[in-house]
């Protein structure tokens, strides 16, 4: 089906003027669509159903969460027009258009006058992203978690991720294991890390909250003039989880000056100043809702999710790149290497990072 015909299924009247690839996600295909007339630009996404097998459940979550947030923003006199995503229904009133060829599409309004960044331009921007993700969690504190579909079961179950890694290593379908022994050994020697959060959730020591689960800085739209955080996007993985994964994932991706796939590992490390800025922002909005246990495990959370993400990239490299989109052969291995370098750096800087958290708590 042509893109024009797909766009026409949604409740927009004007004609398409252009359509271009948008954003830097690794899973879904994302397009920015411009129209003639007054119709604002839209974001059209093809949901990757081999990863999200229940696109209807996924959209039910996303619409429920954005409606909930919009109501709250309105009541509290905050920017409800730009502060949360607005999805556009199809002409027959659904949130998904099934093109009959395996494509499941959704559309949302592009949030005007915003930009997203793969790296924070400065500490202030990163602090603002911490505030926004903390606020997101605080805003969803009274969201009815039991109504959410678990779109990807065990998404951040690091112990299960480790088992999956081991199976892929045993199979070694691409015959790649020999060429990444160092990275494999890194994973195998860090098995204990997988239990830090999972075991505490199971024992009831850590609470489950409604979490975002993909808190990369590029999942926040920033005001193009002021650089302030405006809107959190990519609500596909909003599910019950631990805030430690959310906090940690932001640190993993953003408290460094290197991209996720940087090949010069000497550039890959955690910048304590960025770490401090994010933590300050996050704690300013999560406030009293974090438990003492959660606060004491923030650095651990960063290490666990960085390790988990590296392990997922390495698993996909061994599997033959069937999950994350790649731009070249070995791309997932490059990504795994940056993550493991970050874990090593966090291990070295652990006391320093813990000191920063203690000062701020
Ligand atoms: C994927 O598609 P994207 O970039 O939003 C992945 C996240 C990873 C991230 C690594 C559903 O997110 O879990 O942390 O790549 N999303 C899914 O950059 O697996
Ligand atoms: Mg995502």
What does this structure look like?
This protein has 361 residues and is α+β, with helices and mostly antiparallel strands. Helix content is 44%, strand content 12%. It is built from twelve helices and eleven strands. Strands 1, 2, 3, 4, 5 and 6 form a six-stranded antiparallel β-sheet that branches. A three-stranded antiparallel β-sheet has the order 7-9-10, with helices on one face. A two-stranded antiparallel ribbon has the order 8-11. Strand 5 and strand 6 form a beta hairpin. Helix 8 (272-286) packs parallel to helix 12. The longest helix is centred in the last third of the chain and has 22 residues, at 298-319. It is globular and about 55 Å long. It starts with a helix and ends with a helix. The model has no long low-confidence stretch (mean pLDDT 97).
